[in-house]
Write a structure and sequence with these properties.
single chain, alpha/beta, six-stranded parallel sheet, two-stranded antiparallel ribbon, binds zinc ion
Length: about 230
Amino acid sequence: MDVVRHLPNQGWIEVIVGSMFSGKSEELIRRLRRAQIARQKVQIFKPAVDTRYAEDAIVSHSEMRIASRVVASSRTLLDLVEDDTEVVGIDEGQFFDQDLPAVVNELADRGKRVIVAGLDQDYLGKPFEPMPQLLAIAEYITKTLAICMVCGAPANRTYRKLKRGGRVVVGGADLYEARCRRCFELGRRVRSPAPQVTPGGTDAPSKPRPRVRRLKPRRRAARRLR
Ligand SMILES: [Zn+2]
C-alpha cells in the first residue's frame, strides 16, 4: 500500500503488523526509502531493547537497512521529532511503552505521516501492546503474513522454540519460527526439551556452558594406563 499526501499538512498513521519473518521491517524500509527518494524529510526510530543487528539502523532479516535512532521511550521520540519532518518511521512498536499511541496520535495531528511496524501478537498468540491500540487509531493497516516453517501455509503467529523466559526475549531464527494457527497450537502442546537460558537475560544469545566431562575414578585410572 502506498499512500500519497492527501492535503498539505495533513498527517495520518500507518501500521504494519504481522508475525516475525513476515517482512514488516522490509515493508517499513521500502516506504521510508520512497519518501526519502521524494526528498521528504524522514526521521526513523527504534526502541532501545532491539539491538539485534545494529545500534543505528533498522535491519530486516534479509539485510535491508536504513539509518535509525535508538530511543529509550516514546516521550523521548516525541521530543526528537523536528518541526519540518514530514515522515516518522518507527520499528518494533511492540517494544515501546504504552504512551506510544498517544505520541503517534500527536505527531499525526501535527501533520506528520507516521508509519509504525511491529508484532501484533506475542509468542503466546496474545495481542502485543501497544500494537492493538495503534491498530485502532490508524488510518491504514497492513497485515503481513509469513510462511509456516512447518507446513508451508500462510503464517501469522510467532512460535518460540524456547519454553522459558518472559514476554520479551530478543532473538532471530535461532529462537523463533513463523507458524500457521494449526502448527502453532501443535507446537505448544508438544513440549520439547528446553535449551539453557541466561538467567534474566532478554538479549544476548545464551552461551552454551562448556560441558565438563567427569570420568569415574576407575575409568580415569584405566585411561592413564593407555
Ligand atoms: Zn503450519
